[in-house]
């Protein structure tokens, strides 16, 4: 049985970024599974470099059954609800990943609080914006956000 890596992104469209998609589809010794929180309506453009997301990527939409409160909590607070945290923990227990990879340091903060109790190695990748621009945003509050979420 192949070992499993569980990838986390905030938006499904982030999988169009070639540097992320290539990491996911080119694992030789690992089965890749992606969890994302925010889908993009069909036909909507939301950046990225690839035309499409590779069809062989296994994906789980954490926000597929969200209610009004959960939508607002995420939109304005970038937080998961208690129910979504429980759903995420249940998925991790079922999938039993060997490693968790969070793409984008800013987005890791969305998931890490819910996953603190798991004794599974975690990797957070920082790319451009989240290590250069974001820490200076909001008069330096971006740096505090990253520091607080990483603890």
UniProtKB/TrEMBL annotation:
Pfam families assigned to the protein according to its UniProt record, in alphabetical order: Glyco_trans_4_2
InterPro entries reported in the protein's UniProt record: Glyco_trans_4-like_N (IPR028098)
Top-level taxon of the source organism: Bacteria
Gene Ontology molecular functions: glycosyltransferase activity
Domain Glycosyltransferase subfamily 4-like N-terminal: 75-139
Keyword ATP-binding annotated: no
UniProt keywords, alphabetically: Transferase
SUPFAM superfamilies in the cross-refs: UDP-Glycosyltransferase/glycogen phosphorylase
Name of this chain's protein: Glycosyltransferase
């Amino acid at each position: 049985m192949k070992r499993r890596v569980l990838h986390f992104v905030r938006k499904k469209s982030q999988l169009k970024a070639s540097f992320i998609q290539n990491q996911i589809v080119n694992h030789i010794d690992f089965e890749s599974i992606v969890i994302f929180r925010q889908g993009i309506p069909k036909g909507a453009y939301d950046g990225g470099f690839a035309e499409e997301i590779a069809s062989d990527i296994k994906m789980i939409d954490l926000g597929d059954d969200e209610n009004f409160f959960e939508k607002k909590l995420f939109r304005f607070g970038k937080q998961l609800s208690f129910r979504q945290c429980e759903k995420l923990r249940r998925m991790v227990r079922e999938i039993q990943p060997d490693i968790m990879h969070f793409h984008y340091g800013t987005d890791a903060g969305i998931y890490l609080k819910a996953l603190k109790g798991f004794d599974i190695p975690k990797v957070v990748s920082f790319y451009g914006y989240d290590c250069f621009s974001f820490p200076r945003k909001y008069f330096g509050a971006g740096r505090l956000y990253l520091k607080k979420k990483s603890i």
